[in-house]
């Protein structure tokens, strides 16, 4: 699986879950876990800012931040109820042997699980991560996922395929990166809402809740050259 370089990781050393995006997570947690203690695993949790927010909001929670970038894990603030683990989403059983969690987060992680040499094989990494997460769920557990929805103008899956081809092509990585794609050379694989839902149900997961942001304002070139009908961020709550 392709990994981002340190300078590319720097661009993701931020927190994308603002108050509006936090609302559906809190609603789902409050509904399914009420006031009882729960444990969580934040896969690709990086600097731990999101995990810290969960812990601050739910004083009975305990969490693990897992990431394959030590430089990001090193930026976590020490927290008695938080533990950091260096590991990869593709091998979760090895990272957390014998552990089970009530809640597992994938915040904008799955589109980074790519095979830079094969679009068809990229799905395998996502399936592997989801099956691994299922294996770590406690009874009655939930999986929370944030992903960007690249919905096509006419051909639903074409935008994701085009973005993958551009960002995974190492020969033009410099040009693509200058065009604004931080993942150039490593690859990224976005999907439409329908495609993401097919991935999740195909892995035996049940979609309990879905919410999304308003449609993003995007340049005309995205519609013309990337066949994007609309682009938005979606949150899925799975069992």
Structural features, described:
This protein is of the alpha/beta class. It has one domain (6-148, 192-215, 232-238): Vaccinia Virus protein VP39 (Rossmann fold). The chain is built from 10 helices and 7 strands. The chain has a 7-stranded mixed beta sheet. The longest helix has 18 residues, at 119-136.
List the SSEs and their pairings.
Blueprint: H1 6-10, H2 19-33, E1 38-43, H3 49-57, E2 61-67, H4 70-73, E3 82-86, H5 92-95, E4 101-107, H6 119-136, E5 137-152, H7 158-168, H8 173-178, H9 193-202, E6 207-212, H10 220-226, E7 228-238
How many angstroms does the end-to-end distance come to?
26 Å
Any idea of the CATH topology? Rossmann fold
Domain tally: 1
Beta percentage is 15-25%
Write the element-wise H/E pattern from the N-terminal end onward.
Answer: HHEHEHEHEHEHHHEHE
Task: Characterize the main sheet.
Answer: 7 strands, mixed
CATH superfamily: Vaccinia Virus protein VP39
Number of strands: 7
Summary keywords:
239 residues; alpha/beta; Rossmann fold; seven-stranded mixed sheet
In short:
This protein has 239 residues and is α/β, with parallel strands linked by helices.
């Amino acid at each position: 699986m392709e990994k981002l370089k340190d300078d590319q990781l720097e661009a993701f050393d931020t927190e994308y879950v603002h108050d509006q995006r936090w609302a559906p997570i809190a609603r789902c947690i409050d509904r399914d876990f009420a006031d009882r203690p729960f444990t969580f695993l934040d896969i690709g949790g990086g600097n731990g800012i999101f995990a810290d927010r969960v812990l601050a909001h739910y004083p009975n929670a305990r969490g693990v931040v897992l990431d394959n970038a030590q430089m990001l894990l090193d930026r976590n603030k020490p927290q008695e109820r938080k533990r950091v683990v260096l590991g990869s989403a593709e091998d979760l059983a090895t990272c957390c042997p014998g552990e089970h969690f009530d809640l597992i987060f994938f915040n904008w992680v799955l589109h980074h699980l790519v095979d830079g040499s094969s679009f068809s094989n990229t799905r395998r990494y996502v399936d592997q991560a989801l099956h691994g997460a299922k294996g770590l769920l406690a009874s009655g557990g939930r999986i929370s996922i944030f992903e960007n929805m690249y919905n096509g103008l006419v051909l639903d899956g074409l935008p994701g395929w085009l973005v993958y081809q551009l960002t995974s092509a190492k020969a033009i990585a410099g040009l693509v990166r200058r065009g604004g794609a931080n993942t150039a050379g490593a690859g990224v694989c976005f999907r439409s809402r329908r495609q993401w839902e097919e991935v999740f149900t195909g892995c035996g997961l049940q979609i309990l809740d879905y919410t999304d942001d308003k449609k993003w304002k995007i340049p005309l070139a995205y519609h013309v050259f990337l066949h994007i009908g609309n682009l938005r961020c979606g949150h899925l709550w799975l069992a």
